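User: Structure tokens for this complex, please. No commentary.
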Amino acid sequence: MSLLENLNPEQLAAVTLPNQSALILAGAGSGKTRVLTTRIAWLIQTGNIGPNGLLAVTFTNKAAREMLTRISAMLPINVRGMWVGTFHGLCNRMLRAHHRDAGLPQLFQILDSQDQHAAVKRMLKAANADEDRFPPREVQNFINAAKEEGRRPRDVEIADESSRRFADLYAAYEEQCQREGAVDFAELLLRTYELLSKNEVLREHYRSRFRHILVDEFQDTNRLQYRWLKLLAGPANVVFAVGDDDQSIYRFRGANVGNMAEFERDFHVQNVIRLEQNYRSFGHILDAANALIAHNKRRLGKNLWTSSGKGEPVRVHEAGSDNEEARWLVEEIQSLAREGLRLADIAMLYRSNAQSRVIEHALFSAGMPYRVYGGLRFFERLEIKHALAYLRLLANPDDDGAFLRVANFPARGIGARTLEQLQDAAKSGGMSLYKAAGALAGKAGAAIAAFLRIVESLRSETQGLPLKEAVEVMLERSGLVAHYRSEKDGADRVENLLELVNAAAAYIQEEDANDLAAFLAHAALESGDNQAAEGADALQLMTVHSAKGLEFQAVFVTGLEEGLFPHEQSVFEDDGLEEERRLMYVAITRARARLYLSFAQTRMLHGQTRYNVASRFLDEIPAGGLKWLTPRLRGSSPMEDVAWAAPKRVPQPAVPDHGFRIGQSVLHPKFGQGVIVNAEGSGIDARLQINFGRQGMKWLALEYAKLQPA
DNA sequence: AATCCGTCTATTTTT
DNA sequence: TAGACGGATT
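Assistant:
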């Protein structure tokens, strides 16, 4: 059986597990995707189920695509039509199929986070809510949190006046969405959950159809997603959950690692299979990762190993400043490139996006090509949003969000007053803006009427046209392209709009349904690439979060400073530090052959210089596997026989009379090593503010503190 | 309706 | 430092 060739014993056991639910603890680089896809192929090949008898769920569209590609490489079957997708994608599919049962219009629109934000703002305005007490962002978070707990407005706990108001606003938001036929991300999940929960026939239909349910990145599921799975699975179905609790880094978004333990209990898991053999990194890198993560208390437990030898030590570099760190990075990368490493095989990771600036600056000055991941994605761009809004109005005239977005864009003399007037009319008539617009008279009415004519003629002209041509007509008729052509910096936007035509042409809908609605759902569910074009050999820059799931020949983890990584905000959060450590674990395990850890003594943050202590994570990695590229003040390691880099240059302020200066490292008998961050007073009366990293920030009187220069 | 200016704020972000 | 936002100005 060629399918099962070259699987290690644990992988093999997982793939061929008999019909009972199982939890696969798959460490980084342990062949998780391979196990998942081979399992599917094996189930089908052995006649256990047909391609349509299983459902596989992932978190990203990319992962879903990858899975389908691999399956079709393993089996001579048509994978189109298989239920492999993201939670949201699969829910969308169910809701489209059963929109009536779910209480939704056939062409319901999906709101992405941006759209939702706008919708909440609109609702708050209509409800006359005090913007200071109810900021849109907070209300949005409240609503999403409630939905992810499976709570409707009536289920929200009301403790005080404020929570009562929040619940009311939530209700108003729901009403608005329902009226407009709009569904946000969390709603896709909750609606489907409620649909299955209330409708026994449907529930049984899907339960008997999907005998096998497979879940990827299980540690990232939130409470609602877990309940959804539990509901869909029922007692007789087999759930194959793959995850790694050590790589749970999205708790702040509602991911609940606790689902893993709960899953074991709820599904009577007999088999927890650990995939611990790592096929990605060399020994020293894995040792570092293992040692680090061992500092976490709550773990299911796992130790990665490799048969490929220790490899190179983990290199550590200390820089005087963020700028110096960046310059060193460039030099080091240049030497890696000279050794023949492709730039695209090198990643620079950082904890927060703001850190990329300094690095980018240095790379730019050195003329080194790089690519930054993150930022605006294709379908999130303003001009694309505008274009989509026109399309949305065609699909669903009651979409007030779309109406407001483009009624006066490009400008056609519809002012804020007109729109307000219109909103009032719509509200009192209990109808959508579009419907109310027809009745508006007077001068304002004329402008509005012109807009309606545009939409109506668009509608009739695109009737029956293939999607691609419909988009072309829309771009033309709406005046969007013309508008951006006439704008001085509009060239990129025009290009993007034309790219939208390509996207429409390339879009192949999965089954049945309305082209346009399906394309709009696609646009909302898959916001597109957020990385520059492939092809050119360029260095990869990204946050540690977005590096999850990727691997590189060489990895630089930068900015390893207390307060930055671990982030200072994290210490206030329950379990925050452990999550930061998991994040560091993810960072380390991205590297195949070479891993660099770097930090800087000073860093410009929020417009002022901060003096930092090295991250505690550096101390949590055994010194034996580390090779310091810069001199260290204390401690030693066997590998410290390296040529030391140029002496550190810290910008030095004038030395005050007491002999201590800002930025200086000092040693305190109780608090250990710290860095002077601030000082006031002079002579014997001076007080120094010292950052002791883990011990915190302290103000010490020089007279009493027994400080010595370190 | 577009632009300018002061104020505020500042992790991470699969869908 | 830099961007986002709201209010005021042209």
